[in-house]
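DATA SHEET
Item: assembly model
Revision: 1
Owner: S.N.
Input lines:
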Amino acid sequence: MRVTFWGVRGSYPVPGTATVRYGGHTSCVQIDIPGKAPFVLDAGTGMRDLGRALRTTALGHGEGHVNLFLTHLHWDHIQGLPFFEPVFSRGNRLNVWARSGRGTKINEAVSGVAGDAVFPIRFQELPANFRFASVRPGEDFDVDGVRVRPFALNHPGTATGYRLDFGGASVAYITDTSPFDRIRYKKHFSKGPPKVLPAGDRKILNRMRRDLVEAVRGVDVAIYDTSFTDAEYEKLPHWGHSTPAHALEIVKEAEARSLVLFHHAPNRSDDEMDQILAQTREAAAGSGIPVEAARQGLTLEAR
Ligand SMILES: [Zn+2]
Ligand SMILES: [Zn+2]
C-alpha cells in the first residue's frame, strides 16, 4: 500500500512563502494498491493535484473509478471535489462513503459543494457518475478486496476515521478528533467544556477511545490529527482537534508501527512544523515508533 499526501492542512488552504515545504492544501490522501482503483481519504483542496496526477490512468479517458472515504463534510475535507478532473469525464465513477448525520442523506449533503450560489454548475450536472453509501462506526466492509473499518471520532458534528487493510499491510486515517478527556462531541462543542465532565459522557468518551485504540491496533501507518500544540488545546478543547502528545499516546497504546502528524494548523509555518516534528520524535524515541510529518508530495510505503 502506497500512501501519498496531496493536502495536509486543516481549516482552509494556506499558500505562501511560510508553507512552501509542508504545503498549503487541505486534507486529501491517496492510498494506492497495485492493480486497484485509487482509494482516496477526504476531498480537500489537495484533490485537485491528485486529479491531474491521475490523467494517465483509466480515469483520464473516462473509464475509471475512485473509492472516496470522507471523514466528515467540513469545507477543508470536501472543497476539492468539484475541482477533481475525473468528475468532468462521463464514464468515470466516484464511489463515496461517509457517515450520514442529523437526518441528512449523504448525497444531498455532499452535493452542496457544487450548486447555484457556490459553483458555476450544479453537482447533478457533473458528468461523472456518483454512488453514495453510508458507513457506521464499527461495521467493517470490503471494497475492491480491501477491508475497510470506519470508527467514530470526537469532533463537532462527528467525524469518522478509517482503517484500510490489504495483503497484510494497513493504514489508519484519524482526523479530525479531539482527545477523549475533556469534552464530548455533539454535546459540549458550542458551549465549551463543562467544569466537570458528567459520568455518562465520560463513559461514552472512554468507550470511543477504546474503540479507536482497537481500530488502530498494530497498524503500519497511523495518520493523526495533530493540529494543536498542548497550549492551544488547553485554550480551545472544544474545537475538535488533537495534539502530537495525544496522538503518540494512542499509537503507543495501540502498538501502531508508525505515526504521521497531519491536519496541520493553517497558521503553522514550515519552521514551526520542523520544530513540532523534532519534539515529537524526541518524545517518541523511547517507544521506537518512527514519526513523520505529512507534507504535500510525501509518499510512504505501508508494509
Ligand atoms: Zn478538518
Ligand atoms: Zn472538521
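QC remark: The chain has a mean pLDDT of 94.
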